What does this fold into?
Amino acid sequence: MGELEDAVMTRVWQWNRPVTVREVLEDLQQERSIAYTTVMTVMDNLHQKGWVRREAEGRAYRYTAVSTRAAYSAALMNEAWSTSDNPAAALVAFFGMMSAEQREALRDAVRVVQYGDESAPEAPAEPRAEAPAEPSPERPAEPPAEPSAERAAPPEAEDESAGPPRPPGR
It folds into this structure.
């Protein structure tokens, strides 16, 4: 998603209500000069990609987000990862860019997925490595386990708890 699409979606998520092109335009114009038709085109593109739904109201549309920002971010990460010619190396490089707090959040997320419970209080404690080991000739990176087909399948309903949406345009 481009910078302008992200700026539009940010407003749709923040306002958490149906919005018009005019409302988004007026808010964006506080930061930059932009034309009504540009915002209208971006919002139409977001609708075509499945990120927003729209309902007619008079001669205009009101747009509403289809999924959460977290689901959108997950879909973008999945799309980027799946286009790599070496997914394991891409993950190692990505993990190497993470802060300690981000790595801790990743470990928590893996536990949630493994145990299927967001609180996961009964989950056994796992050893905590300070940083992912860099691959070397003596110790090559191990590819991540393939996600199950059940987890990889996009939800058919708009239920956020069912998992991330299918990446847009795919």
Q: What stands out?
A: Strands lie at 52-57, 60-65. The radius of gyration is 20 Å. The CA atoms of residues 24 and 30 lie 10 Å apart.
